[in-house]
Amino acid sequence: MQHNILLCGFGAFGQQHATAWRSVSPKSRLLLADKHPLARDLALRAGFKKEDICEDYRDLISKADIVDVVTASDSHYPIALEALRAKIPTIIEKPAVKTLEEAKTLDELSQNNGLPVQTQFLLRAHPLVIEAKKILKNSEIGRLLAMDGIFTGWKRMRSDSSILENDGVHMLDLMRFFSEMKPIDFEIIGDKLLGGSVPETIHLRLDYPKKVKGYLRLGIMFGGKQSDPYLAGSLTKKQFTLIGDKGSIELDFNENTMEVTGVEYKETTGGFTPFVNSVRATKCPNITPLTLLEQCFKHFLRAIEHRDPVMCDLKEGAVEITELLEVARERLAN
After folding, report:
1. What is the reported pTM?
2. Cβ pair 265, 145 in contact under 8 A
3. What is the per-residue pLDDT for 230?
4. Which one of 41, 118, 171, 187 has the minimum C-beta count within 10 Å?
């Protein structure tokens, strides 16, 4: 099926969105809105037609069948609002919005109009995440007890979102995806080790239903191990571990590996002694931001054309996570 896809934003990641759309839906027509002249010039050189490029998204939105929002995060809401009022299926890059009120407004519009809206947490499309969910469901590591996320690295901090909003949300979303629950409460500590105006180091401890715990470490001071495929010149560490009473599943999103370990915990003098009885490693080659975007877009097209569920809806990807982020900002400020 052919679509007119309005891409809002042609920065580094917007360019990858364009490439992914051309791969997934080669017969569709790509439209572009970007307020920056250099971005519009780049789009022209990248194969967009002159008449399909504009400065203001409102000039092209009437022609769109799909709107894809990849602008700076503080402009996501007005663009998505305009698209949903026009009853256009929409993709919104994370973080979807800035306030809980904005999230609820978009979610209400989506529900009332029966519109598919997908929040782009692209790690949900990672083959190893999908496989890990199956392993967890099969109780191979027993009952889920805790989840541990690490997103650290030598990478620039963004001016439009904090390290929690930009980096940490990926791990928080994975906790939501695997546990299928939102946290009841959490503790957060932010440190300004460099003496700046905002924390560059953040730790969270989260309480979920069924006594499941969540742990999250973020920061630019801990450094990283591998070159980050999403930001040139950065070294990061992105790992997520599911911890059960019979083992663990460790995912490394830079190495694209998964290690499943079977463990028996025996109560002994002094506490418990773990006995490792199996270790199974899997590597998933050729995973890039582009391949994950392609899977996200295929998922979204199925939601439009076959009424399948979107990969991450506004309830989970905007309302619930923004509620947490608003409380986190308040607690960090105090």
Report:
1. 0.96
2. no
3. 85
4. 187
